[in-house]
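Question: what's this shape?

___
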Amino acid sequence: MPEQQNIEYKSSWHDDYLKWICGFANAQGGRIYIGKNDVGAVVGVEDSKRLMDEIPNKIKNNMGITAEVNLLQEDDKHFIEIIVQPYSVPISLRGRYYYRSGSVKQELTGVALSEFLLKKAGQTWDNMIEEDATFDDIDEATIKKYLRKAEEAGRLPDIDELTTPELLDKLRLTKKRQTQTCRNRFVRQRPRKVLS
């Protein structure tokens, strides 16, 4: 069986493979076989007893998770199977986050990392609360333009004589009278403060 989304073969163990374990934990889970070549043929692993002690401890000590580590044998050659379950919370290795996509391990950075962390927290960028934003940051002209376009499209709720905070509440762009990130499209003043 060739390598794929949830299966990785390594001929020997290197601590760098903790990144693959982290990637599986952050994605759909998977299995790493130590002592198999790239096509899945058993080549054997040296010092399997030591690795059976070290690998589970390295996983736990570096990522705070557990994985099933099994010693298997085929044609008088030992190999190790590491079964990694998917985790519902983000898992990091030394402060870095990895993800298994296709048959490759990727380090998550920038926007990809932000999106990943939000997703694991059950959030999206547009429903995050902007703690330091106020209704004074809202541009009334932009609100009016938005309302005009919504009315032209026939998608305007009953909003006669609502204040801006009441309107944003009705449109579900606030939570407990605090504005959400998606309302930034109405921002006029201090955009750096809102976007940082």
Notes: Confidence is low (pLDDT under 50) at residues 187-196. Helices lie at 18-26, 48-63, 110-120, 140-152, 164-170, 191-195. The chain has two domains: 7-121, 126-195.
